[in-house]
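Contributing new records

If you add data, match the layout below exactly. Sequence lines come first and carry their own label; structure lines follow with theirs. Keep one chain per record. Anything else will be rejected by the validation script.
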Amino acid sequence: VCCCGGGGKPKQPPPQQQTSKRGGNAKKKKMAKYADQDEDERELAMMMLGHKVSGKGKAADAPQGEEQKEHEDEEEAEPTRLPAQVDERLQGLFAEGKCSRKDFDETTLAKLREFSDDVALEILERFGEADVLDKVKNKASFLSGICHRYRDRASKEAKAEIRLINEEEGIKELDEEEKGRLIDLDQLTATPHRDDVLHYCLPVCAPYFAMTDFKYKVKLTPGQGKKGKVGKAAKEVFARLPEATAREKELIKVLADAEIVQQLMGNVRISGGAATKKK
């Protein structure tokens, strides 16, 4: 159905408002700012910003393949910081095509630097002569595995050498089963010998008859003494014993007063010959 009105002109639709694109004003300002800049100035500015510039004066990034190639060349040129002989042998493996510099990270090379030159050269020889080297994808892990085996072998050789020295000196070494049964209490002794290696000393308070074999002991009886003073007096008595070695005196001297106080009972005094020696 068509509806006709009077003889007037048809109404025109209202004009749509033009919306400006986001960032358009900033782009126009930027173009106006560099309107007077010629190609040479633009090329120089792009070079200062670190962009690669083509021969026509336009900034152009290198293809991805060329960037990857340059990155590989930089890795190959990175120094290994290995000794001269070891580095020369490793470069020889690079030249033979058995591996490349990018196959080894700093962690792997650090493991190789832990060994002497002779052992490191032996490791590289074994690495290069491996029959499966062409099939190995992670050559860094392969070389690290060889380093670990050589480290384990060196550790076993060192243990065997120590065992041989102990046998020559007549020192009996405990086996693994005996070491497993060993507890901290077994390492304590009441009668240290001069050739013992002493690490620390512990204060002990017990019935006097239970401490008959103790090298350092004093008899405590009821009295008016305080724990701190009694503990210091006992340390002075022990330090003045003629049979005390320099190491034993040192360990007694550094013994904390708090450790002694925790073991003592209150209202006691040192009695017997020990008190006389102190005076």
